Write a sequence for this structure.
């Protein structure tokens, strides 16, 4: 029970993986106990040996292996949609600067692409909600709502509908105060962890 509670506390949510890890830890601990070590020492050695970087890493790797093809196709769609979005926005800037016609149409296309990309990302994340950390889930929700508010607000603005300004301001505040700080902190933390692993 102690070992299972530790597995669950470390963020493993998949029941099959919980049972596999529990069995693996128990076997490992039994082997160490045979040598005369006490339970607490065997317990600590087992967790350091089997999951030196934490159990969540194993769950994430298992998820990637089991969903490799699906994730690959999803990434292709997301990258294509993101490329088309940036392409349209940069082209709109050029068209606006040169006072060419067609800028408003391209801008509308870019906004719909942003909404499409946000919906795809959010739907993919929500399918595996329990396998991610709370911070990741908050970041996903904040990013999705911000993208939706800014894009829909911009569409409303172009059509002179009410609440456009409120949607845009709320979306930008959510983007700047919640999503971006969490996103860049995650990137920073990842770089620091990788650097410490290389140095150690």
């Amino acid at each position: 029970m102690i070992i299972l509670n530790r597995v669950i506390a470390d963020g493993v949510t998949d029941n099959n993986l919980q049972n596999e890890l529990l069995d693996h830890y128990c076997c490992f601990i039994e082997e160490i106990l045979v040598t005369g070590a006490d339970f607490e020492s065997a317990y600590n050695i087992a967790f350091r040996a089997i999951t030196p970087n934490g159990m969540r890493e194993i769950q994430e790797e298992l998820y990637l292996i089991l969903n490799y093809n699906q994730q690959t196709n999803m990434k292709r769609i997301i990258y294509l949609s993101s490329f088309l979005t940036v392409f349209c926005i940069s082209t709109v800037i050029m068209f606006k600067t040169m006072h060419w016609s067609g800028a408003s149409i391209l801008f509308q296309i870019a906004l719909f692409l942003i909404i499409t990309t946000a919906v795809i990302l959010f739907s993919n994340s929500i399918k595996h909600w329990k396998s991610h950390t709370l911070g990741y889930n908050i970041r996903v929700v904040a990013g999705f709502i911000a993208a939706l508010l800014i894009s829909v607000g911009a569409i409303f603005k172009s059509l002179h509908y009410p609440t456009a300004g409120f949607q845009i301001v709320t979306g930008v505040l959510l983007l700047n105060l919640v999503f971006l700080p969490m996103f860049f902190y995650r990137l920073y933390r990842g770089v620091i962890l990788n650097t410490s692993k290389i140095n150690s």
In short: The CA atoms of residues 85 and 110 lie 5 Å apart. The mean pLDDT is 82.
